[in-house]
Sequence to fold (97 residues):
Amino acid sequence: MLPIKDQDLSKAQRLISNIVNHAVEQANFTIRLLNQRSTIHMLMQCEDTLTDLIPIIEMISEEHAEYSLIYDQMKTALNAAQMGGEPLSIEQIEEAA
Fold:
C-alpha cells in the first residue's frame, strides 16, 4: 500500500494534468472557431482565451517541464492570431501509462 504522501502526490499530478488538458481543449476550441470563421469577434475571443490560459500553463510548466511544449505552442498560437495568421491547434502531451 502506498503511503499517504505518495497518494497526495499522485492526486496533485492528476489535477495538474487535468488542468492542462482542459486548457488545451479550450484553446483548441477557440482556435478551431477562429480558423473556421475568421471574424473580429472570433479573433478577440481567441486572443482573450489564449491570454487567460497562457499564464496558468506558464506557472505549471515552470514546475513541470513536460508541459513547456504546450506553453510554447500557446504563445505561438497567440502570436499568429495577433498577426492575422491562422493559429495551429495545440498538441496534447501523451501521458505515460
Remarks:
- Residues 4-36 form the longest helix (33 residues).
- Helices lie at 4-36, 40-63, 68-82.
